[in-house]
Design brief:
Elements (H helix, E strand, L loop, with lengths): L1 H28 L1 H26 L8 H24 L5 H9 L3 H14 L5 H18 L1 H32 L2 H19 L24 H8 L11 H23 L1 H4 L7 H20 L1 H18 L1 H13 L2
Length: 329
């Protein structure tokens, strides 16, 4: 009986090894289509269920959780308005557009505040918070390129790939799971595997779906990584480097979502879902998917708020994991 329980406990790790392989294979074969499907179908369900679970856990900061949640809502509203204005091409004064866009600097501020909230002593929080805010705005003003990279990557690839990798590694070490550690190693080598992958394996993956990636504000991540990796100009979606970048993005998002859905028994995120809440989540998810189906860009814009909200409200949990990894090194 003990052996059966032990095998059941490690089963999610073994499943996730399989999910890494499947996600990687699909990302190579269908880098654009896989991302579109994962982002539009799996994404909204992930946001809704994880937000419910985080709320049940008081956002991992105790009694101050609800106040942090409302602060996150207030922080994200200006960016959501900016996304809506740019998508609908609403004529707005340039200074207002610039002001709304500049609120993106609050994202790294929120992460740093969450990190120090978790790892520091209470008496240090006020002075630390002031220093973080001042330094962040200074970086944003004097190092716009650096600030843009941080703002663009933190809620996207850092969230779906790096933090997922840390979660997997933390869980594997905590449970002493060989399968979990193998899962972490496989996750780690994926970007390197894409680098050495022959161009001929991905060059045929360019499809008509790439026209959905032409909006620089909505899908500028590919272009940003292309420039960071020294890609030749002009930027072309059909180039092998861009397709490899897109394959990595598709893999990271797909596995991030699948990893969440595979861990229902491990972290128990379904326990607080009553029938009424399941009905509400299901209805909102159907509306979100339908919006994507009618107009993908509008779906991205309308769900931008929910997506970014779940990223920001997960920052304290990210900090808890980082703290746990540091304390055991």
């Amino acid at each position: 009986m003990e052996e059966i329980c032990s095998n059941f406990r490690f089963m999610p790790d073994r499943i996730n090894v399989f999910l890494v392989i499947v996600s990687f294979a699909l990302a190579i074969a269908l880098p654009f289509e896989l991302f579109l499907f994962s982002y539009a179908v799996l994404g909204p369900l992930h946001y809704l269920t994880q937000l419910h679970w985080l709320r049940e856990k008081s956002f991992f900061i105790g009694e101050d959780g609800n106040r942090m949640a409302w602060a996150a809502v207030a922080m994200i509203i200006p960016l959501s308005v900016y996304a809506l204005i740019t998508t609908l091409k609403i004529p707005v004064a340039a200074p207002l557009i610039s002001l709304l866009k500049s609120t993106g600097v609050l994202i790294p501020i929120a992460f740093l505040l969450a990190f120090f909230w978790v790892v520091s002593r209470k008496k240090m929080r006020d002075t630390t918070a002031i220093a973080i805010v001042v330094l962040s705005f200074a970086f944003y003003h004097f190092l716009p390129g650096y600030a843009y990279i941080v703002i663009a990557l933190l809620p996207t690839l850092v969230h779906v790939y790096l933090f997922t990798l840390l979660f997997v590694f933390y869980g594997a070490r905590k449970s002493s799971s060989a399968a979990g550690m193998s899962n972490a190693v496989m996750l780690l080598i994926v970007p390197f595997a894409l680098v050495v992958l022959p161009d001929s394996w991905v060059i045929t993956a360019a499809t008509a779906q790439t026209d959905l990636f032409s909006d620089g504000d909505t899908f500028g991540l590919q272009a940003l990584l292309y420039r960071m990796l020294g890609g030749e100009q002009p930027f072309e979606f059909a180039s092998p480097l861009v397709i490899k970048i897109q394959a990595f993005i598709a893999f990271a998002y797909t596995y991030h979502y699948l990893n969440w859905f595979s861990k229902t028994g491990v972290i128990g995120w379904t326990k607080g879902l009553t029938r009424g809440r399941v009905a509400t989540v299901s209805m909102l998810w159907i509306v979100a998917v339908a919006t994507y189906w009618v107009n993908f860009q509008m779906g991205v814009t309308l769900l931008f708020f929910l997506s970014l909200l779940h990223v920001v409200l997960e920052f304290p949990l990210n900090a808890v994991v980082i703290k746990g990894l540091i304390n055991k090194t």
